[in-house]
């Protein structure tokens, strides 16, 4: 049995991390639509994520946000990536590319030098390695704002490193989702051993304004030749295709310095080692959003040695101490290794984003923390941020203060943010939910008066419409774009707004969040926002029927009439920006009212009918919607590959039939999560799917915006969580057999017999405590106490 005081150094938990989980499609034979995760080297919440950029034919996005594709040709090794996100690519900037010949190479056209890989890629915590078809072996590691690259060239051949500062991850779909290179510069120090410069790139999924990243690169051995280049490219996307618009632009090689100039010319440098005795070329690179000098300081401070293993070892130590040791489980030979890999890999993925850029904010200067790459809060507010609250409290305070600071300087908190720019908003203003969840759990270190003012902006101010190609009807940059409906009508209409059903549901939860914080800082506002949190009921069509069920969320026109002619709540068209609901059908969204399950159960016809409908969600062949990449192979209405359904399998707790929650949620986890490249059922979404699995393995599930956790069934016999910095929550399970014996027979909390299938935050999450499960192989109605609360209960 594992001691609660076990030191992190005694176990190297990083050995249980498989960085390739989610690097391919969700099922064997499907190349894409999987986790879209970053495969490379990174630190927890690091600014740099050092990895390969690849181009693979015949996919929706020619390279994904993580840069990595299983069969793609390598176009560069770059310093910045997102992870697990399914939108148009962002970053893939500040590159290097090793070359063994210049024959046929055009530095302005990377189709002339991209490389396939041979053999198997290798990845572990803090380390990535691959071999190019040219014979060059590549090894990578990372600091917080820096990276180290080691290139092993074939003996006796040519050795070149190409640095193209105009490089970025492209999107074949173009439009508003495409990135754009704006300009850059590069300067070579005499001898060519050190180079500095910057690249400015905008656009991408967040549709951001241009962001400048400064670079400082250094080689261990000075090259024998170093020269800059520049060249005009009329269409940056063309560099991934054949030239078709006239003569191929020619690169102009210079000497020690090059600036892109007014025509946004591409700039870079080519470094060559002629000495036959040199076969290994190593490089350290630092980046900064402030200056090249800071980039050089990061490089020197964070990568203090030319031994790549030193950086790898430091990364492993940090991951173990700051992340993996926060949840300790037995690791002896009797344990199921697959479960260990799923647990610690999931912890790894949920700590790759967002990015802690404190001290690196180029937009304004103050003493507040700075974070970026919230991609997006829509994905992580349901169960990721609540885990940060417990195991990363200091960083979580820092994140929330950064969200408030963005409002202070830019007018709105983000729902999504990358490239120092708010965007995009998929549904509601979900920073409100994050703040409310932290408030009701008494997170210290937050100015809640200011926090509430930021939330009020979301609730009352219609954001300026940027007329994005994504959705022309209202702002998708920040805030709640459909407030022009929500406030006067009490719902989001289907004739004046997009995503009317999902946004109505999300706006309701956002307003419940305001009511929660108002109880502490603006008591007179409480009832106003509590009543607005019930406005989801205004789009409940009591007579709408489908598959022998009555009562559904349904589209409603601005004149008050329901638009149910030919309406099928199990369909949502393309289920994207212009659809009636986003990444989920109205049938699914009809279960997403966590603040008022009591009313929801009543509107569905009472407990018996609610249970029958909930059962239907899990039946095979009930899905009527083409789920595309996020849910390929899923035949049930229940789609664990998309965030709106995260809480649905746990809703049997509201009927005091917790055993069915255990049954359904475990079935989902066992079916769709694997220690394999296809190991998640959809985009990892910045670790959102991974955090769902972690809660499942802990035997708990958080109810967002409430200090409540649903009690389920743990996957380990002994779990020691370090919470709130230095307190211990210990979860034990007797009678556990993950194959046969996992139904709860009884529960004790802090040594006392427990008859409720839920806990309050104060029970065990403040000063720690114990939860003792007795498990068996037969379902049991063990709970006799009250069902979980519905604090937003109000019938309009």
TrEMBL record:
Domain spans labelled Glycosyl hydrolase family 92 N-terminal: 16-288
One biological process term in Gene Ontology: carbohydrate metabolic process
Residues in Glycosyl hydrolase family domain copies: 294-777
GO MF terms, alphabetically ordered: carbohydrate binding; peptide-N4-(N-acetyl-beta-glucosaminyl)asparagine amidase activity
Gene3D superfamilies: 2.70.98.10, alpha-1,2-mannosidase, alpha-1,2-mannosidases domains, GH92 mannosidase domain
Name used for this protein in its record: Glycoside hydrolase family 92 protein
Chain coiled-coil ranges: none
Lineage: Eukaryota, Fungi, Dikarya, Ascomycota, Pezizomycotina
Cellular component, GO, one term: cytosol
InterPro entries the record matches: 6-hairpin_glycosidase_sf (IPR008928), GH-type_carb-bd (IPR014718), GH92_a_mannosidase_put (IPR005887), GH92_N (IPR041371), Glyco_hydro_92 (IPR012939), PNGase (IPR050883)
